[in-house]
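## Example record

The block below lists the input lines for one assembly entry, exactly as stored, with component labels intact.
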Amino acid sequence: MRALTWHGKHDVRVDTVDDPEILNPRDAIIRITSTAICGSDLHLYDGYIPTMQAGDILGHEFMGEVVETGPGSTLQKGQRVVVPFTIACGSCYHCGKHQYSACDNGNPADNQDIGQEMYGQPMSGLFGYSHLTGGYAGGQAEYVRVPFSDVGPIVVPDGLDDDEVLFLSDILPTGWQAAENADIEPGDTVAVWGCGPVGLFAVQSAFLMGAHRVIAIDHFPHRLELAKKFRC
Amino acid sequence: MTMATDDAPPTTSKLNEERASAIAAVTLPKGDDLIGRAVTINRPRDELFAYWRDFSNLPSFMDNVERIDILSATTSHWVVKAPAGRTVEWDAKITEEKAGELIAWTSGEGSDVPNSGRIEFRDAGARGTIVTATIAYDPPAGMVGKVIAKLFQREPAMQARRDLRRFKQLMETGEVATAAWTQKQRDEEKA
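Predicted structure tokens for the full assembly:
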């Protein structure tokens, strides 16, 4: 398959690599139909994230069609799914409390050492985001292997286009969480500093949570234009 | 020595010296012949004990163990990977067993790598079971010994920690997590 691979600072290439295979019972293989570039992919591109290795496949915001499933997957061939970037097992203590980013098992045993050394505790696995988070191949590729596919992927109902659901993989929940952390109550006035994609999702989330008025703050006129379209 | 002023783990300390020594304490082998590690597993104690007690299960999460043959209720034969495609072997005998609580073993005479260890299981309330492994080993002298020592001293504490993590993954999720995306890659990782 073709895949976007990292080779060093400011050096990413579209390479031909092996197609992914089902390796564990709960795996699924997804044929990618849409993928986004995240702001945090720039940190990889600019060489700020340690533990990247030449040939690592990038991409943690993606969706596609299920083409193959392991015997423990709950997905079915032909289903369209959005895949959240966190690789969580669904069975550990933290997953039981919906603390998926603290999953004990999504990160392979060998790569947990790095997080343990840096932070005192390993973190969950992520797609396409360095060996600190597992060294998993990402979704800026034609196909991807999705571990624990019975936990993360969201099956997309018919009638919704990729563009309407793709951002469930990362950036919409990121903006939503920012609004959630502000404990917004009906009738509140809310200010959002920074109106890039995350900020604009925070704006829309604030309205959904009942904010009466949202003030958008940014120094790029075109971002403020977009914010106005969302009633800011 | 500078004292920490908050309750964060010392491995995350803002004080360089304190952080470095805490990380070393976690990652470096303590001496070269005795290691102990613990992990908390979100499964009942009896279930974990039963899986471990069947030694033929151990290679499913111990990547450096090629196979274990069961010889009798208390004895088994271990074949363990060594560098350059070689293997080292020994017979192990269970020396102490308390159902659901602990298993202790020691290698028999003439072992390539004399070793002994114990695995203990303790209730951890809502978090499941705390599993503690203690392993002692004695690499022999000489050329063969050097090769074997390299295998075991490669970072024995790290090997034990990884084995316990894989045990946890297998018991909690039914599989051992891997970032490989082809079978060939996974085989190379385990080799």
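Chain B touches chain A through 37 residues (CB under 8 Å). The mean pLDDT of chain B is 83.
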